[in-house]
Design goal:
Elements (H helix, E strand, L loop, with lengths): L2 H6 L3 H16 L4 E2 L1 H10 L11 E2 L1 H7 L6 E2 L8 H7 L6 E2 L5 E2 L3 H11 L6 E2 L5 E2 L1 H7 L6 E2 L8 H7 L6 E2 L8 H7 L6 E2 L8 H7 L6 E2 L8 H7 L6 E2 L7 H7 L11
Parallel strand pairs: 1-2, 3-4, 5-7, 6-8, 8-9, 9-10, 10-11, 11-12
């Protein structure tokens, strides 16, 4: 039975008692979002409780929240059961899950990834993700807008291939290394690419990345051979590097790139 309908059939004392119980859970710092809290939130809307404070979500609470017609900000959640993910995938408004650490291969997680990819064009941030399945990466790559995945510290070749097909900003500053295959895939990405976590590039990697079509952020580089610098200097996109952090010979080569022509470094 719908929560609002149940309320209609409750006495004033019963409603007041329910509100007191829910309010007590919140005041005690409970971090589990229960069905009672979720449905009280649906009745009383955003002035009742900031649901972003919760770190756990019950499956039946997720089902209730999926009916909410406005944006949901559940940035405190770090994990979701497959059942909860399936429910949230049916939510029709904006959905923010910046604390979520994993999108796995379960049908619910894949449905959620597909749903997130279809959100309104603009930036989709999943800052907490440290684990991304290949199938989820394929779904997210379809998002029309920027894709922020700063928590990822590794990328499979298959996930790299999918993300390389994404069109729009792609934020991957958590990656400290890339396989040859993943580098080749990301070099085909169209849009601004952030790889700030890389501190060095092999000559082969630099040669691949120079083909990237769009601005390229490599602000973390501190080691670069002259050959690698020569390759990057031929890039047609804008380069973002801290030349002062690089060997002088490599920096001298890169200063010839249009990105640094007006640079006082």
């Amino acid at each position: 039975m719908n929560w609002l309908l149940r309320r209609v059939n409750m006495t004033e004392d019963e409603v007041a008692k329910q509100i007191r119980e829910v309010t007590k859970q919140i005041r005690e710092g409970k971090k589990r979002l229960t069905k009672e809290i979720a449905e009280e939130f649906l009745v009383r809307k955003d002035d009742f409780v900031d649901i972003a404070q919760f770190t756990e979500l019950d499956d039946d609470a997720a089902e209730s929240l999926s009916k909410h017609k406005r944006d949901l900000r559940l940035n405190g959640l770090t994990s979701l059961s497959d059942v909860a993910a399936e429910s949230l995938s049916k939510h029709e408004g904006g959905l923010s899950l910046r604390g979520l650490t994993e999108l796995a291969d379960g049908p619910g997680h894949l449905a959620l990834a597909e749903s997130l990819s279809k959100h309104e064009p603009g930036w989709l941030y999943l800052n907490g993700l440290t684990t991304l399945s290949d199938a989820a990466a394929e779904s997210l790559s379809k998002h029309e807008g920027g894709l922020g995945l700063p928590g990822l510290t590794s990328l499979s070749d298959a996930a790299g291939e999918s993300l390389g097909k994404h069109e729009g900003g792609l934020v991957l500053p958590g990656l400290t290394s890339l396989s040859d295959a993943a580098t080749e895939s990301l070099s085909k990405h169209k849009g601004t690419l952030w790889l700030n976590g890389l501190t060095s590039l092999s000559d082969a990697t630099a040669e691949r990345l120079r083909k990237h079509d769009g601005p390229l952020h490599l602000d973390g580089l501190t080691s670069l051979s002259d050959a690698a610098a020569e390759s990057l200097s031929k890039s047609e996109g804008r380069l973002h590097l801290r030349l002062y952090a690089l060997p002088e010979s490599a920096a001298s080569i890169l200063r010839q790139h249009p990105s640094f022509q007006d640079d006082d470094e």
